[in-house]
Design goal:
The structure is a homodimer. With about 160 residues, the first copy, chain A, is mainly α. The first copy, chain A, contains 8 helices and no strands. The radius of gyration of chain A is 17 Å and the shape is globular.
Chain lengths: ~160, ~160
């Protein structure tokens, strides 16, 4: 295996570890538990589930991996803070969307060649990318991995010792 | 620039973003603020500062980048939970150690070639690495980036809106 392929595979393996940890956390939560706040007055778990699903769905587009699956989640979970939307999907609906979006994202990134990883992401123009080559797919994906870890650190606070 | 060099540079750039965010958070905290808990009954910020410093110091050894700088932090911040050690260093001492350890870590990883990134880390033997080539330096470094993001997600909860 070439060095560049090994590097790309390690990045995807790291994502799988983090996403798998989130899967386990969300999967074990009842509707009542999804109403818990990560800390007094802070986001509820159901909001973070929707927020992460929406963020990963957007990532499908930013990485140019295909069409988005759930753009309807942007308004309640990316644009608005928790408790601001008049209505949000059920926990069951969000859990299904979470698994669906992450499966599509993983299938997409597993197909990327090393050269494709360092191609521009969708939010940067071809002109700007010539001057700013660090704005590549891998940078976005690592940023999404960190974003997921960031929220896992919060979700874990609601667990009993 | 080759694809493999671009991949390695993107990984280091991602670390710098996350570590820079943590620097800003810790740097702005007074001794009194370092005593805050991330949530009722959970870790204090000073514990997380020591914990992350100790974890990154250990990473110097695991990535085989050189001698550790602060192994004395393992006992109070890795082995023991918050409030269990009889004495811990001051906030000022820990902030200085944090900057020192991260500077050493960054200097070390910036020198790694792509081929060195996929070499074994120090906690896996040469024999085991032949069977488990995913246990490489990059896997450790990505895991440390996620670990840092995980705790930043908690630290941020103590900030006023």
């Amino acid at each position: 295996m070439s060095v560049e392929v090994a590097l790309a595979q390690t990045v995807v393996a790291s994502w799988k570890l983090v996403a798998g940890r989130a899967d386990k956390l969300f999967n074990g939560l009842s509707d009542a538990e999804l109403e818990q706040e990560i800390a007094p007055g802070k986001n509820r778990l159901i909001y973070l589930l929707g927020h992460l699903t929406a963020a990963h769905d957007r990532t499908l587009a930013i990485l140019r991996l295909g069409e988005r699956l759930h753009p309807e989640l942007d308004e309640p979970f990316l644009k608005l803070p928790d408790r601001a939307a008049t209505e949000i999907p059920s926990g069951e609906t969000l859990k299904a969307a979470w698994l669906q979006v992450n499966a599509a994202l993983l299938a997409g990134v597993e197909k990327l060649t090393p050269a494709e990883w360092i191609e521009r992401h969708a939010d940067v123009s071809e002109e700007d990318f010539l001057k700013e080559p660090h704005r590549n797919r891998l940078a976005v994906f690592l940023s999404r991995t960190s974003h997921l870890s960031f929220h896992i650190g919060q979700i874990i606070l609601t667990l009993k010792k």
